[in-house]
Every structure is written in structure tokens, then in C-alpha cells.
Amino acid sequence: MNKIEFFSKHDPKIVPVLQRATIGIAGAGGLGSNIAVSLARTGIGKLIIADFDKIESSNLNRQQYFIDQIGMPKVIALLENLNKISPFTKYQMHEIKLNEEKIPFIYKDVDIMVEAFDKAEMKTMLIETWLTNFPDKPIIAASGLAGWGKNDLLHSRKIDNLYICGDEETDLQTGISPMAPRVGIVANMQANLVLEILLKGFNADGRG
Amino acid sequence: MKKITVNDNILKWEENMNINVILQRMNYTFRMLVVKVDGKLVKKNDYNSTIVYPDSDVKVIHLISGG
């Protein structure tokens, strides 16, 4: 496959910037699998992705996996799927449960960190670990994405180098679970912010 | 009136105002939070011991499960 042809819809000036970038994704579930697919299509040079979980049938309602991948480790299945999308991104996968010690080690070389966990405790742990170890590197987190509808509540906001995407209010409860459209929107808001940060100085209308 | 800013809202400053007092005054009952004061992270174990001064800019981010 020809790289120039693959990226022929992009402004040629942005391709090298994207190809030089390394992005970390913590988690390969509803958020992480969608973020990875978008960033691979965009042409990010390298993705570093960690998750310890295996695919269950209940994941297929929102995660970028297939029926024949049920039971596989998520990072293995995601690598398989990403390789089918683009050979122009390097994928570094870690089948591992992240904690305060492993995060700075695995993600030390990324330009931007993307939080893609399911549990609030893990989100908080990652953000605190990141802001403590890498206060100058951006981290993009998600908070509040369960349920359906309410498009206009979704937003992103910036607090120094910490970016939050989501509605910041809808909690998981009986009858309100994460579903493909809203999880996909928030995952892509996070991926979109990655581009905004990397491409600062270029115009989004292609006239940059 | 001496004041602080919490998530862009003005709040009256009090003597010995720590993070837990601020969360109470704002009626924030969330469990999983990230708190920053003037750009600096304040960890949960330090909420009681971190005293906030007038004109401080406090950001409280509520992390919700789901992903």
C-alpha cells in the first residue's frame, strides 16, 4: 500500500507532524478501542496501548471488536484490527494492569496521554499519577458518557494540561450503561483533541 | 470580601479554609475527584492539610465511571 495515496485526503503539511507523534492510550475498552481506531486512521506515528482484560460478548455493544474475538485479550485483538486498518502507525501493546508504578515506565515517551478507563477510581489514579510525573505533558480524560441522547451536554474543557471530555454528570446506574453512540462520540472528542494539540498552528480548514 | 474561585464560581474565603471545607461549601458530594489549586495537584490524603488562601483558583474535576 502506498503511503502518499493512503493520506491523500490530508493536507500534506500535517502528515509528517502526525507521523512523528507518539500517543499513549490507557485502556482498550469502549473508549480506548474507538480512540485507537480513529488515531490509526489519522496517521499517528505510534500508539502505546495497555489493557489487562479479555473480550466478553457484552463488550460488543460499544467496543471495536468482533464475535470471533470473544475470549481474546483486548490488546491482541485490537492489534489484529488496527493492522487491518493502517500499516502506517506503529502499535506497541501491553497486556498489563496499569498502576502508579507501571504508568510512568510504559508511557514515558508519549507526547500526549489519553485516559480510556471504565472505573472512576482508575481514572483518578491515572490523572494523579500523570500530573505528578509529567506535569508538562497533556492528558485527555473522559468523564460522563453513559446512556443515550443529550448530545448538547457533551463538551470538553481544559484545566492547564488536563483536558476533560464528556457531560461530567451522567453516572452508571441500573438502566444507564455505556452505549456505542455516546461512548464513540466522547472517544472521538478525545481523539479530536489529540489532533488539536498536535496540530496547533495549522488551520483546520486546510489553509494553514 | 475576601474570595476564592472554584470552577469559575466565586466563593467567600474563610480562615483555615481547606479542600474539604471548600467541597462542603460547594455541596460537592462526588467521591472520585481530581483537585487543583492554582495549577497544582492536591492529592486526596492532603485535602485536610491543604489550606487555601484568598484569590486562589480551585478546580474540582469529578471523574465518573463509564468507558
Layout of SSEs?
The complex is a heterodimer of chains A (208) and B (67).
Chain A: H1 3-6, H2 14-19, E1 22-26, H3 30-42, E2 46-51, H4 74-85, E3 90-95, H5 102-106, E4 112-115, H6 120-133, E5 139-142, E6 155-159, E7 162-166, H7 180-198
Parallel strand pairs in A: 1-2, 1-4, 2-3, 4-5, 5-7
Antiparallel strand pairs in A: 6-7
Helix pairs in contact in A: 3-4, 3-7
Chain B: E1 3-6, E2 9-12, H1 19-25, E3 33-37, E4 40-42, E5 57-62
Parallel strand pairs in B: 1-5
Antiparallel strand pairs in B: 1-2, 3-4, 3-5
List keywords for this structure.
heterodimer; A: about 210 residues; alpha/beta; Rossmann fold; seven-stranded mixed beta sheet; about 15% strand; B: about 70 residues; mainly beta; Ubiquitin-like (UB roll); five-stranded mixed beta sheet; 5 strands; globular
Provide the CATH superfamily of chain A.
Answer: NAD(P)-binding Rossmann-like Domain
What gyration radius of chain B follows from the Cα positions, in whole Å?
Answer: 12 Å
Q: Number of folding domains of chain A?
A: 1
CATH class value of chain A:
Alpha Beta
> How do the strands of the widest beta sheet of chain B line up side by side?
2-1-5-3-4
Remind me, CATH topology of chain A?
Rossmann fold
The span between the termini of chain B is 43 Å
Structural class label of chain B: mainly beta
CATH superfamily of chain B: Beta-grasp domain
Kindly state the number of beta strands of chain B: 5
Note the main sheet of chain B: 5 strands, mixed
**Spatial order of the strands forming the largest sheet of chain A:** 3-2-1-4-5-7-6
Please give the domain count of chain B.
1
CATH architecture of chain B: Roll
Compute the average pLDDT of chain B. Answer: 95
Helicity of chain B, in percent?
10-25%
Which class of chain B in CATH terms?
Alpha Beta
What's the average pLDDT of chain A?
95
- The Rg value of chain A, from CA coordinates, equals 16 Å
**What pair of chains forms the biggest interface?**
A-B, 37 and 16 residues
